[in-house]
TrEMBL record:
Cellular component GO terms held in the UniProt record: plasma membrane
Listed name of the protein: Branched-chain amino acid transporter
Membrane recorded as keyword: yes
GO biological process: L-valine transmembrane transport
Similarity section: Belongs to the AzlC family.
Main location: membrane
Membrane topology designation: Multi-pass membrane protein
Annotated TM spans: 12-32, 38-61, 68-89, 137-154, 161-178, 190-219
Organism this protein belongs to: Weissella minor
One protein family per Pfam: AzlC
InterPro entries with a match to the protein in the record: Brnchd-chn_aa_trnsp_permease
Entry keywords, A to Z: Cell membrane, Membrane, Transmembrane, Transmembrane helix, Transport
Compartmental location: Cell membrane
Amino acid sequence: MKTRTFSFAFKKTLPIMLGFSFLGITYGLYMHQLGFNFLYPTLMAMTIFGGSVEFIIANLLTKAFNPWSVFFLALIVNSRHIFYSISMLERYRGAGWRKPLLIFGLCDETFSINYATELPDDIDKDNFYLYVTMLNYFYWVFGAFLGGVFGSLINVQLNGLDFVMTALFIVIFVDQVLREKDHFSSRTGFLIALACLFIFGDTIFLPISMFIMIIIFYVQYRRTGGTAS
């Protein structure tokens, strides 16, 4: 069953492998352009494992040391993971020794696969979640390593590399809209985020919009008797 489960998880993560490989290489090249050798993007990918945050911190490393600014910026950017975690509480229940790895490796793409995939009867649920999480983790770290190495071997300046995360989020959003039967969540999230951006500005709109969305989705969940997805 483990072989069947791993094969199923690998097939599900193939699109992520292509995307993460490109993004990881881009991140490694970006770090090299900022003056860091391949060890920096590799170690940051292994320990932080937050693509958008890693791009931001890479730029902050070239500025004056300000740990509190980095802390709050990382908290704001990754505040969306609060919503992911709440959604995965029931699915990760009973995962045992796998749970710390599942929590650490919960990124946008892993959440999308583990939350939306309907598993056949012959697939072990907990191992599937673990394989998806670890495969996506490997894709990102290895891509960052390759990018750092390529950057040290190829002397080339590429502009606009930090836009790739924005493009990724757009693709994820469009894919989610296409998968949904009811567009309540995507429409609500888009409108709330847009309104908060105009009202509060681009610095703090993300945590505020996430907080509002959690309240709305909870109310919707209770209103529908716990059947809303």
